[in-house]
Amino acid sequence: MATKKVLVNNKIEVSLTDKNFLSSGGEGELYKKDKLVYKVYHKAPVSYERKIKELQVLSAIPNIVTPKDLLYSKQSSFIGYTMPFVDKAAPLFQLFTTSFRNRNSVSMQSTGSLVNNMMDVIQKIHDNSILMVDGNELNYMVDSASFEVPYFIDVDSYQTKNFPAPVIMPSIRDYHSKSFSELTDWFSFAVVAFQLFIGIHPYKGSHINYKPSQLQERMEANLSVFNKSVKTPASVRSFDLIPADIRDWFFRLFEKGERSKPPIIQGKILAVKQQTYVLAHFIQELYLSFPEFIGRVENNIFYSGENAYTVAGKKIPSAHSIVSFEGVNYDVYTENDSLRIFDTITEKHIVNDEIKATRVGIFNKDVYAINDEKLFSIKLLHIGTKTIASVQNSWPIMPNSTKMYGGLVFSNILGKYYVYIPANTGGLSLFNVFELEGYRILDMKYEKGVLQAVVMKNGSYSRFVAIFDSKGYTVKWYHDIVMTETNFTVLDNGLYLTLTASNELIVSSKLKDQDKILTECNIPVESVLFSSGNQVYYAYQDKAFSIKMK
Fold this sequence. Notes:
Shape: globular
Strand order of the largest sheet: 2-1-6-7-5-4-3
Number of strands: 38
Number of helices: 6
Helix content: 10-25%
CATH topology of the domain at 89-254: Transferase(Phosphotransferase), domain 1
Distance between the termini: 59 Å
Largest sheet: 7 strands, antiparallel
């Protein structure tokens, strides 16, 4: 195990190991130890020591993750800094998608409060004669309980009196200004805030005279989604959800090229009547109805925010993740760093505190859990009349840089990207998906030999697809997509269907490279695709439908 020794404020020695590793990027590496994050530069500019000290004036603002202590090498060279670790927070960009908002009951009223709180913090930054400059959507977190409290991260990129900002993401740059200012900060904020309300970049959508990659040209021409000549995808929420005062500011900013500070959002944000969908290409039939909205479907179990339902319509109260074993449904979750497995028939725990775990997931109908530096599988067994859980295989991991997604485990191992996916022979197989290195992973899912990931690089979103077989995997890319979560399902015949944020259903095959794209399919983009055998379904709000081609 590699160990990196740093001196906090050139006095206290701290050892950072692989266990502490969080992530790496172009500037350096991040480590988490106790309640602090340590940023260690690959090669720290000599001047950054003074810049970090200038930024510490922001430490009085609780929403800003400000550099705290300086880090030095044994040779007393400046190499980085510490900052507080933000717990129980989600990446801000997740609020762009309607499916995430529905699944977490995020209201437009709370979004209005969040935007007001972001404005308040930005104003405080400006009051200290500092500019954010690169205030893109990756540089914010949001409290995952209320979704109203923002956290500002990547603060060392800010511009101070003596140190200009090094970079800015192209998608938030004000191309009408030759230098950075408070007004360019407010423009960048507007681009992010606009997406929080309706789910699309103000200069995305399609225009007959511009390619999807010509974002800068659209921004320079002030040709925004407010323009009647721009067609927006089905994932876009109603413009009526934007409060009138700030909507007028957005219009003057994006369409007219005006520059000014934003107004404070006041009053209630009115709900908008849900759109009625008429499907093109398909015949649909009602499959199931539920007493509440469904946000997730896994292994024929339907999950709302609080409960789960079987295909037979039976309610499983307060469910987390359900695994079925010999006709019995077991609720699997973690609590107080321990694995819990609850028998939904006897209403008793078969596992309570015996197995330590901080995270758990169901992959290919099997249970996998993480504790400290170990990923392990759990098998349910019958011993006499009792059902027990037994730990089976295990794999070493780096806990801070490992994340469970739908159907797989992703791990950033010192800058190398790996996925653990279910193997045909049981257990997990490990693959280095080097094609994704350098991208920011936004969402990921694996199902029946197909992996899809939504990723971001330089302000542009892409969909990555990997098809796995006995020889390895092959790759397909879809670039310049609208930000969305992964939403696909795989049929037993080898076909897989992907629902995009642009109102398209892409029909692909694991055996052929060619896609069939059904445009304007009108399946609600916030619905959840799933399948059984070769039958395709989608869950939307409180219903599930089967579909077949006309």
